Amino acid sequence: MDRIKEFYNRLYLYPNDAHYIQTLCHSLGVKTGEEWRLAAIMGAQELSNTLPLADYRNFQNREENDPNFRFNLHMHTHYSDGQFDVKALLDEGEKFAKIRAKAGSDLPPFVLAITDHDNIDADKEALKIIAQHPRKYRHLRVVLGAEISAVWKDKTLHEIPFEYELIYYGLNPFDENLESYLKQNQQQRQKIAGLIFESLNKTYPHLSFSPQEAYEKEPLLEKNLGLGFAGRIYRYAATKVQDEKLYALTHRFHHTFEATPDPYQETDDIFDLWHRSGFGFLGVAHPQKTNVGKFLNKDFIRRCEIEHKDAGYEVMKAFLDTLKGKGLRALEINYQFDSESLQQAQQMILGEQAADENDGSYRWLKFFIQYADRYGLLKTGGYDTHKTKITDR
User: Fold this and answer.
1) Predicted TM-score (pTM) of this structure
2) For 238, phi and psi rounded to 5 degrees?
3) How far is CA 326 from CA 70, 267, 275, 283, 321, in A?
4) Which of 34, 48, 144, 206 has the fewest CB atoms within 10 Å, counting from its CB?
């Protein structure tokens, strides 16, 4: 009873989340008065109020049963390119939460976010499991989300559209507009992938390019989820042939602002879906890893050189300023890198290694931290989990 009372106290403190939980309950068929069945769900308002209490250390697992490790807000399941099935993910998360609950803290015991690529099916399954077994997951907090591939189109800055990823935290997986949008874009990508394979077989008739063969090497390609699927087809095709035509052929729908059919999910469309839903918030996924300096407009580069400005920083600031103007709420600052240079840079940021102002990775990380601090953006993060262990990339 105490836990049920605690849950309703949370709803009182976070009225937006109360509406969110009620909406989810209605879609699930959970009876009025039994909203406590979704006590493990953390809404965007509670998450927004909790994140400022956390720091980088709370997103990092340094030892077994590390009491400071409290968040992994970037996790994938088998619905995209992860290996976790949803129940196993929840069970593993509850184990983490139960151990950390004994350690005590102003932070929740453990918070995980399901963030599959352009897919919200795992969110639905998680909700059903939690509603059926509310007491089993009583220590855990689950954020329903998705990592959504997006494109930013500004011809004055880039020669081709700039691809990146947004993470949508606290979404409603029963939102018909969101679900329809993601499915339509998957179908569009399937069509484009088919056209690319047709071109490959026509251009190289002495070879055989098979989607099924490619799928074995690239799980996201099979599901046509996430950005960069042209690059995945290219990597597969390059195992059979390498010539100057191959890259252009596999990227012919991507390296143009007027692609027909269009493989991109537009930034404006995604922000519009978020505004219309009334729930959650959007953040840029691992901005430190985005290659914003690739294919920069040559006139823009020359202008920056004349003004003695760094084109990479200038275009990233313009990009973030644009998203902030649309309502961006977060940057994935507390990301756990697999890159050695970025790991070392993070140690410099934390003061665990002497800072080197000439280190490009260090300056890049510091740029995003300062940007988030300057504009009050939330700092999210996680391991970008793809395997069957909470902390395995």
Assistant:
1) 0.96
2) -70, -15
3) 30, 9, 10, 11, 9
4) 206
